[in-house]
Design brief:
Bound molecules: iron/sulfur cluster
Pfam family, one: Oxidored_q6
Distance between the termini: 35 Å
Protein name: NADH ubiquinone oxidoreductase 20 kDa subunit
Largest sheet: 5 strands, parallel
CATH topology: Rossmann fold
Cofactor: [4Fe-4S] cluster
Radius of gyration: 17 Å
Oligomer: single chain
Family: Belongs to the complex I 20 kDa subunit family.
Number of strands: 7
Number of domains: 1
Keywords: 4Fe-4S, Iron, Iron-sulfur, Metal-binding, Ubiquinone
Number of helices: 5
């Protein structure tokens, strides 16, 4: 335990310096009701897992999305917003609708990655029901295949305004 404490003390802070906060006009209108923090339920609607790796990095100690008020939660009933990755497969279309319905109002949806935005490389595949916006209303898109952790953090900061 003492060795761990020493290591923490020697390592110090590893988070990237915080860039300036996003201008208020970049905030989706309904995000202004969030009051500076957003609780997010992640839904993998059919991702290759590349976007999940980058989301993991965005919430890790280097990019540290939580310091801007964004937090992942375990239930849609505890969430303000859905963080959806991947193209929506036929099997995930209904679970995504149900998860959306379980989020209390006012709710937001963030489409993370090109598959979630436009079906990306999976466009036209037989098991694909559509992009996230074809199934539930989308408030914010984060482009990239996969998006970089700093782009995910920048997108989430548009929700929190911090
Ligand atoms: S956007 Fe790229 S990394 Fe993300 S799920 Fe699609 S193929 Fe994978």
């Amino acid at each position: 335990m003492l060795a761990l404490w020493r290591k923490i003390r020697v390592t110090g802070r590893v988070a990237e310096p915080a860039p300036p906060a996003p201008p208020v006009e970049q905030q989706p209108p309904r995000a202004r009701e969030l009051g500076g923090s957003v609780q997010l339920r992640h839904v993998d609607a059919g991702s290759c897992n590349g976007c999940e790796v980058e989301i993991g990095a965005a919430f890790g100690p280097v990019y540290d999305a939580e310091r801007y008020g964004a937090r992942l939660v375990a239930s849609p009933r505890h969430a303000d917003a859905l963080l959806v990755t991947g193209v929506v497969t036929r099997n995930m279309a209904q679970p995504l609708r149900r998860t959306y319905q379980a989020v209390p109002d006012p709710k937001l949806v963030v489409a993370v990655g090109d598959c979630a935005r436009t079906c990306g490389v999976f466009r036209g595949a037989p098991g694909v029901a559509g992009a996230v916006g074809d199934i539930v209303p989308v408030d914010l898109e984060i482009p990239g295949c996969p998006p970089r952790p700093e782009d995910i953090v920048a997108g989430l900061r548009k929700l929190t305004g911090r």
